Each structure stands twice: as structure tokens, then as C-alpha cells.
Amino acid sequence: MAAATAQAPSEPKASSPVDLSTIPISPEGKASDESKSNGDKAEEQITVFHDPENFNVKHPLMHKWTLWFTKPPSGKGDNWNDLLKEVITFNSVEEFWGVYNNIAPTSELALKSDYHLFKEGVRPEWEDVQNKHGGKWSYQFKEKRNVPIDELWLHVMLAGIGETLEDEDDGELMGVVVNVRKGFYRIGVWTRTIGKSIPGGGDGDVAGGKGRSTEKGRDILLNIGRKFKEVLKLPASEAVEFSGHTDSAHSGSTRAKAKYTV
What we know:
- It is built from six helices and eight strands.
- It is α+β, with helices and mostly antiparallel strands.
- The protein has a single domain, classed as RNA Cap, Translation Initiation Factor Eif4e.
């Protein structure tokens, strides 16, 4: 399981993060000449036993993940789709660290910027078909100067790709988000449901709640909230809140009323 391997590497972090625009869109399709010459063997899982001297092992993640970036609006009526940029898709621990060590840390982003790390094929938007029945756990850090936001965001990302925010087969986690605003940082965890069955959920839609009671769905979400709170290292006196995307959309500029808190 990726959770056991998604740890910080011993190499020092790159001293000067590169511009997001310089990162290739996807690492896919860049097999080495040796892999290409092996034909069908190119799909074979590489382990340390293939080359123990160079240790060219790849630790696969359970899912492919895509990093997105929202750049600050220019104030000229920018469209959301123009601000939201797909950066890169990866599927191994090594690729994650390659991306992380070459992008600007959250603490250095301009105001109104966002990072989104979502499962491949899921856009970080309420309207996405896989998100529209869901919601998110979130917490705002208001004392920005005293918040180790880079460390916290890294730990949330590792918990996401390491599959430790939910139990096996829950199928709720869609992605994680960090928002940089003038008065606060906010970190969120998006889920596929709000604890209820998705209308018309198919057989393959585990998180659609087929055969899942509302009580069971609620327990799963609360468990995710508790784990999220632990990753953020929040004291018991602080609460993380869960709200549905539909409620958030209808609330406009005001905050949606929390469905759950832990």
C-alpha cells in the first residue's frame, strides 16, 4: 500500500522551484529506450531486483492523481476555466516527489491561488459529475504567519495519495485542496457523497452507496473528518466542518451551514 512508502526522500528539496508552466503535462509515454526494446515487458512492474545497484524501483500508487493550479484572477472578468490549469498526472511515489520538489511551495503563492490534487479524471469543480452529489471537509487557518502551511499541505497530500484518509473500499475521497487568501489559508478534502446514496448509482459506483444506509454513509464521512483533523494536528477544541457542494453553491458569498463537525 502506498501509505507505507509515501515518505519524504533523503534528497534535499530543490532550492528554486520552477514555474508551473515548465512542468510537462504528463509523464506518460516516456518509457526509456531499454523499456521500448523489451516490447511487452514495458508494462512489467519494475522492482529493486531488476537493478539492485541503481535501485530504480517505482512505488505505484493505488490511483493516478492529477495536480491542478488556479492562478489569481486578473480582475477583468476571468472565466474560472481559464484560471484553472491542469499541471501533471502521476501514478507513483517517485513521480509525486519529482513534481512536489519542482513547484512553488504554498507559502510563496500569490493571493487567490489554489492547488488541487484530485484523482485522475475528476475536475476540481462542484459541477463535475463525480463531485456534484458530494461535499468537503475544510478548515481555515487564520493566523497565517504562524501556520506551517507547506508542511500541513504536504501531509494532507501524502494522506490522500497514500489512501490513509479513508478505509479500504469506502470510495469517497475525490481530492484535496489548499486555498491562499488574504486573511487565511484553507485546506479541504472533497468527498463523492454527503453521506447519502447517489441517485441512480450504478453497480460499479462503490461510493454511490448501493446498499449503503444513510447511517453508514454518515459514519464513513465522520471517520474521514477525524482522520483529516489528525493530519492537520488540530487540538480537540478546534473543529473541521463538512458542507455539501450544493449548499455551498446556493449560499453564494456566505458560508454554507456545516452538515457535520468533528
